[in-house]
Amino acid sequence: MRRLAAATVGVIATPADLATVPAGTGIGLRRALLDELLAQRPALDFLELAPENWIGLGGRFGERLTEIGRHYPLIAHGLSLSLGGPDPLDARFLHQLRTFLDTHGVRSFSDHLAATTDGAQLYDLMPLPFAPAMVRYVADRIRQVQDVLGRRIAIENPSYYLALSDDLTELDFLLEVLEQADCDLLLDVNNVYVNAMNHGYDAEAFIAAIPPGRVRYLHVAGHRPPQQGLRIDTHAEPVAEPVWALLTGAYRRFGPLPTLLERDGNLPPLTALLAELAHCRALQQPGRTQ
To answer: Are 189 and 220 within 8 A, CB to CB?
Structure first.
């Protein structure tokens, strides 16, 4: 397989602060929240942004992004690498992404263990077959991305509604990718719960099988209650109680790792997000996860 030209000598020389997330809790940076965040300066440990929504953006929003980066550490969670997709990796975009991350001092980058292109953007996270050949394919692409970006990346375990192959379990597939690619995991606790409920496995056992040293940070989000037998990962509802309970178990397993509250739809007022985030922060406190 033809490799992309690397921008650096490789991820072995990656500075530690390019593969870390600040301790504590954060929310996703949305343009609709910019004015409130800058006016109120709430106590947030970090903000997570989707770089595709900000790369090349000038004018007022570009200035506001620079300003908010002076007040909060920024991390990035990508939407379009298509690590498992059939199209070649987008070399031009990867170099734009490297410039963006370096320019804004972004401390961490992650993307999804999914396919998001097939000749064009699919605007969705398509599941991958849980098969050894796909492990090798994805791991090779992750290593290429890490070479070009000059930093170790994290991959997120996505939700899925149809298993394309049962050669491996979801857990074994994920662990093999992490091992062969030598990358980190962004563990989405809500996705573990949704998948466990939809596909009939033990969510707590899934989390217990993940090596603590692989997990960089956590996502927690809401999902749609069961409809026609399926829970749907929407990021448009408050976090459900069983997901809070699973998050508490994750803290017992991994310690109080940095945690992001995701909300992409039905965006409530900032005060409501901060109240939900306060519950997450309380769960991280010593003694609360015993």
So the answer is: yes
Burial of 103 (0-12, 13-18, 19+ CB in 10 A): exposed
CATH of domain 14-283: 3.20.20.150
Structure tokens given for 161:
């509604």
Reading the block at residue 186, the tokens are 């962004």
pLDDT tens sequence for the chain (290 residues): 344 544 433 333 456 678 899 999 999 999 889 999 999 999 999 999 999 999 988 888 899 999 999 999 999 999 999 999 999 999 999 999 999 999 999 999 999 999 998 877 767 789 999 999 999 999 999 999 999 999 999 999 999 998 888 899 999 999 999 999 999 999 999 999 999 999 999 999 999 999 999 999 999 999 988 777 788 888 879 999 999 999 999 999 999 999 999 998 888 899 999 999 999 999 999 766 54
Count of C-beta atoms within a 10 Å radius of residue 239: 21
Residue 11 structure tokens: 């991820």
Give the whole-angstrom CA distance, residue 188 versus residue 193: 9
| Residue owning tokens 């993307």 | 111
Q: For the chain, what are the domain ranges?
A: 14-283
CA distances from 175 to 93, 102, 258, 288 (A): 27, 29, 21, 29
The C-alpha atoms of residue 238 and residue 255 are separated, in whole angstroms, by 23
Other beta carbons less than 10 A from residue 79's beta carbon: 16
